[in-house]
Amino acid sequence: MKAPPIAARLLRRRPSILKSGSVHRIFHTISRFSIRSKTAAGNFCLLALCGFGANLNGLHAQADTLLALPSPEITAQHLRRQPAGAQSTTLDSTCLALHQTENVADALWKKSGMYVKSYGLGSLATTSARGGSAGQTAIVWNGLPLQSPMLGQLDFSLLPLVFVDEMTLQYGGNSAGWGSGAIGGAVLLENKSQFITGLSARLNVAAGSFGWQHHATTLRYGNGRWAGSTRIFFEKANNDFTFQIHPDLPETKQEHAALQQQGVLQEFFLKTRPNEEFALRVWLQDIARQIPPTIVQNRSQATQADALLRTTLHWKKTSGLLTLQTRAAFFTETLDYRDPLIGQASLSKFHTWMGEAEATRWLGRQSRLQGSVMQTYTRASTPAYEASPRQTRTAVFLAMRREGHRWQAQLDGRMEWVDGRWVPFTPSVGAEAEALRFLEIKGKIARNYRLPTFNDLYWRPGGNPELLPESGWSQDVGLVFHGKAKQLRWSYSATGFHRRIRNWLLWARKDGQFFFSPQNIAEVWSRGIESRLDVASAFSFGEIILTGGHDWVRSTNELAVSNPRIEQGAQLFYVPTHRVFAEVSVRVKHFQITGFQQFTEKVTGINEDVPSFSIGSLRIQYARPFGDWNGAIFLHIENLWDADYQVIERRPMPGRHFRLGFNAGFSTRKHTNSSS
Amino acid sequence: MQHLLTSVALLLAFGAHAQTVANFENFNLPPNTFVNNAGAAGAFTSADIELPNNYNAQWMSWDGWAISNRTDDTTPGFLNESSAAAGKGANGSATYAVSYVFGASIMRLTGATAGGKVLGLYVTNNTYAYFSMKDGDAFAKKFGGITGNDPDFFLLTVKKYLNGQLGTDSVNFYLADYRFANNAQDYIVKDWAWLDLSSLGNADSLQFTLTSSDVGAFGMNTPAYFCVDDVTTEDVLSQDDVVLNALSFDVFPNPTSDFLNVRLAEDADNAIVQIFDLQGKLVSEKTISGPQPRLDTRPLPAGAYFIRVGQGGKIGVGKFIKE
Questions:
Q1: Given an 8 Å threshold on Cβ–Cβ distance, is A460 in contact with B147?
Q2: Percent helix, strand, coil in chain B (nearest 5)?
Q3: Residues of chain A contacting B145 with CB distance shorter than 8 Å
Q4: CB of B138 within 8 Å of any CB in chain A?
Q5: pLDDT of A574 above 90
Q6: Starting from the edge strand earliest in sequence, which strands make up the sheet with A35-38, in order?
Q7: Domain boundaries, given as residue ranges, for chain B
Q8: B150 to chain A: closest CA residue
């Protein structure tokens, strides 16, 4: 692709440690690798279990991604997307193209160290990142937070990967960059502005066990100056799987667990000048699902209907060493919960308006300065609120990065006012360096926070408007060893983290108060070690890629609480101390087979412990091009060993099940210019 | 006055046990009504029973006691917290009391019953708790668990307060019991059941607590509700009180205008003195000590009064005239 002159100059003079081109240099023999792991070596390419599709199934994505890597856009948001000293992993469009029938929760389960707390097939899925709570993982879509202001979290099972071009998983706190909630980690969902000339189209059709079917289509079109993208998906499942509830009992069929959702993501891009462009995005999605009973509940008639509209307008202009961007957004969501069995109907709704102006400027050859001002206005309503409370937030972000030949360092800071109250100043400082040819060292110290949600503040009974934000400091230190020998590439990383969060919010009973209310009464100490091993080898007939990891996480309450009953030193609910996972992918010509296995140690539940479990999956795919066309067929076998397990107590997970599908696409595009 | 004295004399002479039944029908509720706000009084009163109510207007929530005549015995869930599982009051009546227990619910004895004996009451589950135990819900388990063999229970425990002291004796009643070896014997109370409380003896108030086998980190998962009706009490002016638990004392001057001296056989030591009007309404209560404590009767309207003195587990009853 052709980069704008100034950007190309910047790219050339950037230290080699940061060049995306290093991806190709390091892995030139297996350049289709598509998961980039952010290490001390910048965009050092570690692994790519999705890589098969880069030159086969992912032909359509190949141009999108591999050509896009060295483009100037990588400088635009990197200060926040890939801060110096932090651990992150990027799943680009090539990788995600192989998972178009899945959702973000599925991807996190297999591709990240974040622990996904799934309530069952088609049900709620939240995360615990580095021992944090569900609300302590930020979800950012093209630079804008997606968490519900009412709940402070998002259901990852409702984020279809077909709507995402690139996903970056940030580990550890980054509240300086993303504001409230980025304590344990952040999930960044990106869409690329793709100024193609011509037309490309792709169709995905898949079906599987328990009445599951998934259909998606993606159209891209344009003439180089303007472009558009239309993505539509439809998913339906009965989720009526059987499970062994007890060894002495016959199998039980899951009831009332059906899901149906559909959505459209429409994008329009306009390049008014070579250095100026607009991107308009409209995300519409509608979800209807039944809430199944627990295993100690005879029946359920509860349903939940979600409807959402997310609209953003993004303007970007590069002028010399200066890049200016603005983002405007309007998000609205409704959640209609009904339970005819008990006569309950509850409609919740929120509207959020956001505006952000951002400037990034190179200062000399090695330094960049970025600053932004963001204004957020939110209004929410639910029968449990007395009125429709509103919240106004103003945030100022500043970042400075300096880059040397084999090192880089970054200083960030954020100030935020929430309804006239100051949130404690949130700084972070990180650095990384290539100490030896085979060793990189990195580290980061950050202050992080999470604001009380609307439910925390206004829910009746219990809401407490006087709540303080959760806040505390985190520290990360990581070592990355890497090397190569002939066709073999390997990398091993070990990252230690430490974090203390004070004013941790708990819904608890005060003395003499018969209802629960949120209070800043807890303090949580999280620490752990994350180990990752990645090995890739290319052969004349294909490639073998191995990735594995082990997470040891202790996340303990440091203050005893009577109700809920929490002892000092007790591990947080639903935070496993040990988690081990491994994936092996073998490609032979047009075939690729991928096996995944993971082990999760038992976790503490609200009522009882959830036993440890080990589950595996297998994915077989055949993909090849046919002229301008390309296509693939695939078979997924989930829960390969047919294990009986639960992630959340009393919520059964399905046994072995299958998914079979194909995708086909063609492209007449002549040219692609992609940016974020 | 002559009539009053004659009545008392007859009462004492023949040792009659005056019983009172609080059936909550005095609220005269419109059909299908639930009252969970006792207003400024802070309690619902029926006959000689007072049921404290804690209503939070800001949160529109409550604990303690409420009065209901709702009949929905089929709808599960917290929105049906106001109905008895029996679908009506005890003995075919309409109105009953519902308790949401936060820690403990208290039932106070007043009037002629104050310091007397609760012979018993009818009790049952409320509909919300009943179906939660029967079928489970999003937070609580169905009793018996997955296999039906879990030894689950939902237990109501009643203790008494007398002279400010919580008694050690208790009466237990299983609102649900799944501890039987034979699961066919497992049960959840749905009809009104008589709970004999006479073994607790004299009391100023009763304390009701609930415990369940279904407990998590956030406390008891089983909805903490139960219902009562037809609370039957025995007046303090009974032969038992006067003869079996006689406490000898004098009051003077009688009639009196301003002050009334109380003289016990021994020095008074934190003795409880209660003064009732002719309707049995408690009009004054005081703790006294010393050889000859004095009561201020100036606030009392002119008329006849009963005076009841309790000390060391003994009770004496007398009368005086305020001029």
A1: no
A2: 15, 45, 40
A3: 296
A4: yes
A5: yes
A6: A45-47, A35-38, A87-91, A166-171, A185-190, A137-141, A144-145
A7: 19-234, 239-322
A8: A296
Interface contact B57, partner A, CB < 8 A: no
Coil, strand, or helix at residue B312?
A: coil
Q: Which residue of chain A is at minimal alpha-carbon distance from B102?
A: A514
Residue A439 or A59, more confident: A439
3-state secondary structure A305-371: EEEEEEEEEEEEEEECCEEEEEEEEEEEEEEEEEECCCCEEEEEEEEEEEEEEEEEEEECCCEEEEE
* CATH architecture, range B19-234: Sandwich (2.60)
Residues of chain B in contact with residue A515, where contact means CB-CB under 8 angstroms, are 59, 61
CB pairs < 8 Å spanning A and B: 84
ipTM: 0.83
User: Which of B79, B60, B97, B32 shows the shortest CA–CA distance to B229?
Assistant: B97
Annotation: CATH topology of A5-675: Maltoporin; Chain A (2.40.170)
- Average per-residue pLDDT in chain A? 87
Inter-chain CB proximity B136 and A294 less than 8 Å: yes
Q: Which of A302, A339, A606 sits opposite B217 (nearest CB)?
A: A606
Q: Is there a contact between A249 and B75 if contact means CB atoms under 8 Å apart? A: no
Q: DSSP strand E in A155-300: where?
A: 166-171, 185-190, 193-194, 197-208, 212-223, 226-237, 242-243, 252-253, 259-273, 276-290
Report the residue from A245, A291, A565 with minimal CB separation from B217.
A565
Q: Which residues of A touch B76 (CB under 8 A)?
A: 341-342
A302, A344, A607 ranked by CB distance to B216: nearest: A607
User: Token pair of A391, please?
Assistant: 């919240």
H/E element holding A602? none
CA distance A461 to chain B (A): 5
The encoded tokens of residue B39 equal 């207003």
CB contact under 8 A, B80 and A343: yes
- The reply to whether B142 touches chain A by the CB within 8 Å rule is yes
Fold match between domain B19-234 and domain B239-322 = no
Query: Per residue in A233-279, pLDDT tens?
Result: 999 999 999 998 888 899 999 999 999 999 999 999 999 999 999 99
Architecture of domain B239-322: Sandwich (2.60)
Distance (Å, whole) CA A599 – CA A578: 8
pTM, two decimals, is 0.82
**Do the Cβ atoms of A132 and A185 come closer than 8 Å?**
yes
Residues of chain A found within 8 Å of residue B135, distances taken between Cβ atoms:
297-299
pLDDT tens sequence across A194-237: 888 899 999 999 999 999 999 999 999 999 899 999 999 999 99
- Using the Cβ of B78 and the Cβ atoms of chain A, whether some distance falls under 8 Å is answered with yes
Please name every residue paired with A531 in a beta bridge, in sequence order, or none if there are none.
A494, A550
In angstroms, the CA A188 to CA A660 distance is: 29
What tens digit of pLDDT does each residue of B146-195 get?
999 999 999 999 999 988 899 999 999 999 999 999 999 999 999 999 99
Taking the CA of residue A564 and the nearest CA in chain B, the distance in Å comes to 4
Contact B226, B294 (CB under 8 A): no
Which of A59-63, A336-340, A572-576, B121-125 is least confident?
A59-63
Domain extents for chain A?
5-675
Check the CA dihedral B225-B230-B235-B240 and report its sign: negative
Q: Is B145 on the interface with A (CB under 8 A)?
A: yes
Within 8 A by CB and 6+ apart from B24, the residues are B44, B46, B67, B89, B95, B96, B97, B229
- Neighboring chain A residues of B75 at a CB cutoff of 8 Å: 342-343
Chain B touched by A562 (CB under 8 Å): no
- Angle, CA A662 vertex, CA A658 and CA A664 arms, to 5°: 165
pLDDT at A246: 86
Among A61, A64, A70, A55, which residue's Cα sits nearest to residue A23? A70
